[in-house]
Structures are given as C-alpha cells and as structure tokens.
Amino acid sequence: MDVVNEWLLTWGDRYWSWIVLPVVIGLGLYFTVRSGVVQFRLIPEMFRTLRDKTPRDESGEPQSVSAFQAFTISAASRVGVGNIAGVGTAIAMGGPGAVFWMWLMAFVGGASSFIESSLAQLYKTRDKDGFRGGPAYYMQRGLGARWMGILFAVVLIVCFPIAFSSLQANTIQATVAGSFSEDTSGWLPWTVGVTLAVLMGLVIFGGVRRIASVTQTLVPLMALLYLLLGLVIVALHIDRIPDVFAAIFTQAFGPNEIVGAALGYIILTGVKRGMFSNEAGLGSAPNAGASAAVTHPVKQGLVQTLGVYFDTFLVCSITAFIVLVSVPDLSNAEQGIVLTQGAIVGTLGGWSNVLLTVIIFLLAFSSILGNYYYGQTNIEFITMRSGVLLGYRLFTIVAVLAGSVVSADVVWNFADGAMGIMALINLIAIALLSGVAFRLLKDYMQQRREGRDPVFTRDRLPDLKNVEMWESELSVTGPIDISERDSLRR
Asked: Could you tell me which residues are beta bridge partners of residue 130?
C-alpha cells in the first residue's frame, strides 16, 4: 500500500505541475481579460441576484430550487474538509506563502467559475425535481461530444461522491476521536460510519429538494459557528496579525522560497488545496448551479462566483489565521485536521474540541450531501434507469461507511489525481465554449443598461443549437401578475 501511495503522490505532483497548473492559470487569466474582470466588476450583481425570487410554474410551485438553494448546495460541497484539513495541509507543506496563492487562484478562478456555471444553466434539462445539468451536459449539447461528457461524468463520480465523501467521513471520525482521551480505535470508527450512513440515506432518498432544504439550513449555521470561533481566536492573538500578513506575502515570493524550486512547490500546494476547497474551474459546482430556476444563465454564473469567494476569502482565510496566529513555528507541524485542531484547542482549551467536532460534522456532512448530488446528476446523464440510481445511492452510503474506518492517505492522493483529470477535461470544454458565455454576459449587461431585470430566451441567440430550456419569457419567469413583473424591472 505504501508503494501505491508513493506512486500516486509522485505521479500526481508531476501531472499537476506540468499539465494542470499551466492550464488552470492560463485559462483563468484569459477568461478574466475577455470578460472584463467579471469576477470583480459585477460583485454587486452577485449579491443582488442571490436575493432573486424563484420563478414558479403554472400551479404556483417553484420551478426548481432557488438561486440561494443552489448556492448552498454548491457551498455544501465546497465548504468541508478542504477548508479545515486542506488549508492545514497547505500551510504545513507550503508554509504561510501557500495562503497567498490560494487567494490569488480564487480570484483568477472566479472567472472560470462564472463561465462554467453560466454554460451549465444554458444547457440544463428538466427532470421530475426541477432542472439538472453540468459539464457533461454542455459537453454533449454545446460541443456535440457525448463521449467527453460520459468520461467527465465517470471521473466526477469516482472523485466526489466516492473519494471526497470518504475523506469527509474520515475527517468526522478523526475529529470525534480527538475528543476522547482513551483509545477508541475499535468501536468509534464503526459507530461514526454507521451514523453517517443512516443520516445520509434519510436525506438522499428524499431527492434534490430535500438536499436543498437541509443544506440551506446547515451551510449558514456551520459558517457562522466556524467564523465566530475563528474571530475569537484571532482576537486573542490580535498582536500577531501584522506578522501573519507579512509571512503570507513575503513567503509567497521571498528569496529563501525561490531557492531549490521551493516557490514552485508553494504555488502548487496553494493551487491544489485552493481548487479542492473552492472548486473553481473543476466542473463540480456547475452541477448545482444548473439546478436553479433563474431568469438568465448569467445570474447563476455570478452566484457561483460568489460561492468561490465565500469559500476561500472567508472560510479558508479563517482557518489560515487560526493556524498562523496560534502556531508561529511550523517547522514540525502536523498536516491536516490535526494542525487546525491543535491550534484551536491550544488557544481555547479542551472544551473547544467539542464545539469543533460539531462544526466539523456540519461542514463534512453537508459536503457529503453536495457530493452525492453531483454524482446523481451525472449518473442521470449516463442512464435514467432507476436500478442504476438505486445502486449508486447504496454504493455512496457504503463509501461513507468505508471512509470512516480506513486510512485516508491513499484516498487523498488518489483524489488529487482524479481531481486533476476532472479539471483538465472541464477546462478544455469551457475554453471551447467560452465564446457562448461571453455572448450571454453581453446580453445580460445590455438588459441591465436598459433598466431591466434580465430575462434570457433562446431566440436572443438563435444560432445556438441543442438548447432545451429558455423557450419563452413566460416559461422562464413563470406566470406572474403585471405589478410583480414591473417590480422585477430595475
């Protein structure tokens, strides 16, 4: 097993360094320039769109989940192990300078996130719960490459609902174990695993709307709890804040880091852990973005870009500051959740272990639900057979149980490799389709300049093929009365 783990680690680093990293950075910069820095220029629109009313069908029911619910589904997957264990690993391996590269790539990746989620909305389809879509769907409909969509779907299923969910379960188990003074290696992993499996089953068999209702409750709660905890710790070490900022910036570029190609390793660590956390350009968040009922594809592109910022600039930064103000000397720092957990307990005392365990559970469990939904969307792209979906549900429950009782080293390295493959496939697709996304953005901005709340219909870009939704303004906005329609005009 050690040989396999070493091979995965070596192969993964080379693959990311020579192939994925240049593509991620290059395309992110290209999308930033071509879109007129959409990820910064339209930040006010991101917040405005998040509050949009959900279009309804003829019976008065919501057409699908709301923009905010789709935001929480994607945030549920984003905000998890990557924000606590992943950031801890990045700092332990790459030092404080890795945080700078996580921030930079979140900003650059925001443009990629806008492109992929706008395309997912455009090429979405209807199902019994509302809408579904994602990279597999725009690969088939936008590029005419179903084979590419199937390849992406398979890699995503292996990566998210299996590998990443196993990691979330493993982190919950490790955090719970850290709250006990005695040896719990015999019974605790199985107890945690069975509990998670049962809870997961109760939610996922209720469909996407039950997942959305759970995540829209859990995500704000877990974020608030964790941010409050982090702010208390930072306040207790307020005198170290200038040193922390100095370390983040100087160790991202400093001459000592350049010697021996260490700078490249810091960048690689920051980008990998940043992408694992915020998923910008990875092709996962568009699966949630496509499920939203909105009046223009660009709206969900903006909302999902805001999700990248929420994940990295808020939640990941809190973890980074918790660690850096509490552990000035990282020379012998342990990786992952142990580093973050030690920093919190070292500042607040043993009681904080219990609170952290609750927060980790909320973070990781909501991520498991988000990961499951991503896989379901891609299973339904490959086949609509109910037996296959049932088998998938049972298999993901078993994966969560297994993740609670096995070592995570091999799964981490395997997941990194799978994530790199998945990102490359998706980035190639959105590069080829980016012209469509830029046209959608131009249409959106034209309507905003006219003082309208943008509504997209496919006759506005009549040359586009294989667009199933967006038939007419009535089908997009739903039957609303004149006064309400006027109130939607800005």
From this structure: 127
> Taking the CB of residue 323, how many other CB atoms lie within 10 A of it?
26
Question: Which CA distances in Å does 401 have to 43, 100, 409?
Answer: 40, 35, 17
Q: Where are the domains of the chain?
A: 2-451
The answer to pTM > 0.70 is yes
Exposed/middle/buried for 56, CB within 10 Å: 0-12, 13-18, 19+? middle
Beta strands per DSSP E along 70-139: 125-127, 130-132
pLDDT digits (tens, 9 = 90+) for 407-432: 666 666 777 777 888 889 999 999 99
Overall average pLDDT of the 13-35 stretch: 85
- DSSP-derived 3-state class of residue 58: coil
Query: By C-alpha distance, which of 274, 328, 271 is closest to 96?
Result: 328
Distance (Å, whole) CA 10 – CA 295: 46
Whole-angstrom distance, CA of residue 489 vs CA of residue 56: 17
**Count of Cβ atoms closer than 10 Å to residue 487 Cβ:** 12
Least-confidence region, from 25-29, 113-117, 265-269, 365-369: 265-269
Q: Using CA atoms, how far apart are residues 490 and 325, in angstroms rounded to an integer?
A: 45
Q: Please state, in angstroms and rounded to a whole number, the distance separating the CA atoms of residues 270 and 252.
A: 10
Q: Which two tokens stand for residue 173?
A: 């188990």
Report whether CATH 1.20.1740 matches the domain 2-451: yes
pLDDT computed for residue 206 by the predictor: 66
In 10 A of CB 211, how many CB atoms?
26
The values of phi and psi at residue 336, to 5°, are 75, -150
Residue 483 has pLDDT above 50, yes or no: no
Annotate 341-389 with three-state secondary structure: HHHHHHHHCCCHHHHHHHHHHHHHHHHHHHHHHHHHHHHHHHCCCHHHH
In the DSSP assignment, the letter for residue 320 is H
- Contact at 8 Å (CB) between 297 and 469? no
Identify whether the C-beta of residue 113 lies closer than 8 Å to the C-beta of residue 304.
yes
